[in-house]
Amino acid sequence: MQRLLCLSLANRDLCSDNAVAFLTGLPKCEHHMHIEGSLEPELLFNLAEKNQIALTSDMYSTIEALKTRYENFTSLDDFLAYFNAAMDVLLHEDDFAALAYAYMKRVSTDGLVHTEVFFDPQAHTGRGIALEVVVNGLTKGLNQGEKEFGISHKLIMCFVKHLSVDAAVEAVGQMSSYFASGQVCGLGADSTEKNNPPSKFASVYEKAREVNVPHLTMHSGEEGPADWVRETLALGINRVDHGVHAADDPELLKELASRKTLLTVCPLSNVRLRVHKDVKESPIPLLLEAGVPFSINSDDPSYFGGYILDNYLAVQKAFNFSKDVWRTIATNSVNGSWCSDERKKEITSLIDAHFEQWAEKDL
User: Fold this and answer.
1) Catalytic positions, please?
2) Hey, CA dihedral for 189, 192, 198, 203, is it positive or negative?
3) Is this prediction's pTM over 0.90?
4) What is the DSSP string of 7-39?
């Protein structure tokens, strides 16, 4: 009962009790979650006080006012203004550790078993924070979460598109030792898509290959058109974050399906940022029909109204999927993960066991 009270009322109202229980227990993989986007207002205000950071009063008056503001973003850029300002409270290794651990603790009751977490080093080094403070702090918090809750994890660096291409190339080079050690497993690109076609960043991904980054992804097709998803694929990237506008192009869907390119879809984020008016507008059914693999993710959960389970429930509320559909979604999420094959087998076994428990029950 306590768990139900923590869920978004809007997302559970039209889900049966069985559907809520089934989706809560379903083992999940998350691939699109910005750790800075899990900075809850309570932790933000606490860290500001701890680190003696004066918050801008017109943006940060009270915790409740801030939560209300988060419900009324007008665009991606409107959100990014708050997202970027909030990071000023993160100064020390233990701040980053606290942030990462808070996320792991929060999702430990959501059925999450594996997470691949984005972070934005440029947003911190640009404030004078040493790279090792950021990476080691996040790693410490994630490791503590894995030890306590059994959630395996990977770190993914993102460069930000609103800064120069040269700055992104430099940032990738600065991360080379972390890629080599495996402490950071991949490279992505986030921030605004406006005036930033994927081809603009070809040299950044060339640099990534030069320093042997194991995995590559990019935010694309959230605000940008289907053609930009195609541009992303042309860069040799075989995972696309968001990618929802790919559904506007049937031929592109065929290509994504044939390449088995994972889209990391974020339903509640798409609504909060006005990509869609309602989760019912999500192209998830089209992706299923076309055979395009995707995962369901929370993006920036403290800003967008829900963590991973809330997104699963929102999708169920919108589409009333069967257990077979959820098996497909769960399986594709495992297959598209960047964890080891051994870990994938472990998660698949957990999923199989969950479906055996539900074999005689309806949603």
Assistant:
1) 222
2) negative
3) yes
4) S-HHHHTTS-HHHHHHHHHS-EEEEEEEGGGG-
